[in-house]
TrEMBL record, chain B:
This is Hemoglobin beta embryonic-3. InterPro entries: Globin (IPR000971), Globin-like_sf (IPR009050), Globin/Proto (IPR012292), Hemoglobin_b (IPR002337), Hemoglobin_oxygen_transport (IPR050056). GO terms for molecular function: haptoglobin binding; heme binding; metal ion binding; organic acid binding; oxygen binding; oxygen carrier activity; peroxidase activity. PANTHER family: HEMOGLOBIN FAMILY MEMBER (PTHR11442), HEMOGLOBIN SUBUNIT EPSILON (PTHR11442:SF7).
Length: 146, 147
């Protein structure tokens, strides 16, 4: 189980409360699809995701980013048992969605970049380090059933 | 050989032409040492790296960060031949500095975050894609001479 200090909990919450799920959510899948185009294979039912313009204008892509961030919110609220909180999600990604787990890290990186664009200097190196630890725990938890 | 579109070339050269190397270089390297603390082992002779404050104010780290950015500048100016441009640097990192090549990606990731924080919403997904493609080529070229 991951151990968190009070400072780390505070830092993660303080980053998270600055994240507008609607605003940041709409970016994260778009960034993942544009920067790592092979991830398009997982979103076959989203319509046109084959050009940058199509991806940026695709309502399903934007909506799904919010679904992902709402799930991340669950992890923020259950930091002491992210693995348990995500066990159904992990099974979903393994059994049904058949996602290559290497891709979790890519989306996590895109989430951090989206947050960096928004928070700018507020994502200082010490804050970034703690946020990175949190996302690493989230990715591990998603990987747990694999 | 890596192919670059005109748009990618423009994105990459524009980012670098608007950069203060003496600001971004130190920030990227300091961030790497703080977020991925094992990388500090390569800078043992640089003095006090005991905490984030010490790292951020360490003049040797700052100077080295600037040096790294100037090194990247060479890649920007030789986009069509990064591999050859970095052949000597690759040998240096492998044979003299003994850097685990996995760490190149970590520094590249930290530089991406610094640029993202600087550009804000101007760091669009397309900009991110071009910039990360550039850094991936740089990282690959640096790892090339390892054996």
């Amino acid at each position: 189980m991951v151990k968190w200090t009070e400072e780390e909990r505070e830092t993660i919450r303080s980053v998270w409360e600055k994240v507008d799920i609607d605003e940041v959510g709409s970016q994260i899948i778009a960034r993942t699809l544009i920067v790592y185009p092979w991830t398009e294979r997982y979103f076959g039912r989203f319509g046109d995701i084959f050009t940058t313009t199509a991806i940026l204008n695709n309502a399903k892509v934007a909506a799904h980013g919010k679904v992902v961030l709402n799930a991340l919110d669950l992890a923020v609220k259950n930091m002491d048992d992210i693995k348990g909180t995500y066990s159904a999600l992990s099974r979903l990604h393994y059994d049904k969605l058949k996602v290559d787990p290497d891709n979790f890290k890519l989306m996590a990186d895109c989430i951090t970049i989206s947050i960096a664009c928004k928070l700018k200097a507020a994502l200082s190196p010490p804050v970034h380090m703690i946020w990175h630890k949190f996302l690493y725990a989230v990715v591990e938890a998603l990987n747990s059933v694999f | 050989m890596v192919e670059w579109t005109e748009q990618e070339r423009t994105i990459i050269t524009t980012i670098f032409s608007n950069l203060d190397y003496e600001d971004v270089g130190p920030k990227a390297l300091a961030r790497c040492l703080i977020v991925y603390p094992w990388t500090q082992r390569y800078f043992a002779s640089f003095g006090n790296l005991y905490n984030a404050e010490a790292i951020k104010t360490n003049p040797n780290i700052a100077a080295h960060g600037t040096k790294v950015l100037h090194g990247l500048d060479r890649a920007v100016k030789n986009l069509d031949n990064i591999k050859a441009t970095y052949a000597e640097l690759s040998v240096l990192h492998s044979e003299k500095l003994h850097v685990d090549p996995d760490n190149f990606k970590l520094l590249a990731d930290c530089l991406t975050i610094v640029i993202a924080a600087k550009l804000g919403s101007a760091f669009t997904p397309e900009t991110q894609a071009a910039f990360q493609k550039f850094l991936a080529v740089v990282v690959s070229a640096l790892g090339r001479q390892y054996h």
